[in-house]
Amino acid sequence: ILAQANCVCHVQASTTASSCTGSMAQQLSSASLDWSKLSFDVTETAGRAEMVWKDGVWGPLTFERDPYLRLHMFANVLHYGQEAFEGLKAFHCPDGQVRIFNDGANHERMTRSCRRMMIPFVDYEMFTAAVDMAIRNNSAYIPPPDASGASLYLRPVIFGSGPQVSLHPSKEFIFMVMVVPVGPYFKDGFKAIPGEVISDFDRAAPQGVGACKCAGNYAADMMPASEHKKRGFPIGLYLDAVEKRYVEEFNGANLIAITRSGKYVTPASPSILASITNACLMQIAKDQGIEVENRRMDFKAEVEDWTEVGAVGTAAVVCPIKSLTQGGITWNFDEEAKVLESLFLRLTRIQRGEEPDKYGWARVVALE
């Protein structure tokens, strides 16, 4: 099975979508939605891009309008969770172009997740064909340039769809790219929130799948997240599973800290999901003359040296953290987070085409 999974990564995909009424460019941002009231939640859209892996090859790429899937009751993903997914954003920019942000990095990360989960790879050409098809056929749902904090969120997902009872890699897979127009992940935007250090649960084992973007990592967080939210903390920070000493990551975001000496510090660990947003922010910080350290971080030994703390990821981009509480101790940080805000603004301007993209992160998507 693993040999089969590794031999199909350059199969050509058909990009013939079902017909679309009118020009996709003319439909851009035309959906009857109140863009100012978008939240990070589900909104019905036109459909998704999809293809199926069976008998060792990927089938044609199609556009499916039915939001529901038909799966065998013994589909692998329902029982053994063989799945990986990604999250990225597309923007309707002031110059009229639609840009997808850094999808090459998302493809690379998804490939790493697929390798660990024994899922057949989708090559970059197939990945971008599916992304572009999903964007083009949902152009009406891309928020307009003046919709503050809004974007079209894309969710590529690949999972074992073949029926089975015994434990083994699936013999069939479905890859699809769905979209949803979203507002800010945190409703108040760039506003500091309190966090709690999670002491009774672990996010991932040292040699587990913490570095993969797979469903099980997020399912395991639901109970601890629910508990700290009841205590008034919207976000929780995990420490390492062995010593409960070293910083791992927030529920669904990397941690970055600005130290008293002005350094940008973010934890390195084999069980952390490497944030694409964090990687971009590190590059921007370096270019602004900020010293960047990506290393192991001893929480209690270092926390008092942090002046600003942020949770960073595709959904939130940067969310400043005003405090972290562990037991009866609370550490407070600068709520204005001016350094993090400057990095946040620079990155979002690049994403939205409001500033030159010298890094080549954004890719224009042709709507016709």
Q: How does this model look, in words?
A:
The chain is α+β, with helices and mostly antiparallel strands and 368 residues long. The chain has 2 domains: 38-182, D-amino Acid Aminotransferase, Chain A, domain 1, CATH 3.30.470; 193-350, D-amino Acid Aminotransferase, subunit A, domain 2 (D-amino Acid Aminotransferase, Chain A, domain 2, Alpha-Beta Barrel). The chain is built from 9 helices and 18 strands. Strands 1, 2, 3, 4, 5, 6, 7, 8 and 18 form a 9-stranded antiparallel beta sheet that branches. 44% of the residues are buried. The model is unreliable at 1-21 (pLDDT under 50).
Structural key phrases:
18 strands; 9 helices; alpha+beta; D-amino Acid Aminotransferase, Chain A, domain 2; disordered N terminus; 9-stranded mixed beta sheet; 27% strand; D-amino Acid Aminotransferase, Chain A, domain 1; 368 residues
Strand content is: 25-35%
The major β-sheet equals: 9 strands, antiparallel
SSE order in H/E notation? HEEEHEEEHHEEEHHEEEEHEHEEEHE
CATH level 4 superfamily of the largest domain: D-amino Acid Aminotransferase, subunit A, domain 2
Overall pLDDT confidence: 93
* Distance between the amino and carboxyl termini: 39 Å
CATH architecture of the largest domain: Alpha-Beta Barrel
- Indicate the CATH topology of the largest domain: D-amino Acid Aminotransferase, Chain A, domain 2
Name the CATH class of the largest domain.
Answer: Alpha Beta
Q: Residue share in helices?
A: 10-25%
Question: Structural class, from helix and strand content?
Answer: alpha+beta
Q: How many domains comprise the coordinates?
A: 2
In the predicted model, the low-confidence regions spanning at least 5 consecutive residues are 1-21
Query: What is the count of DSSP helices, taking H or I runs of 4+ residues?
Result: 9
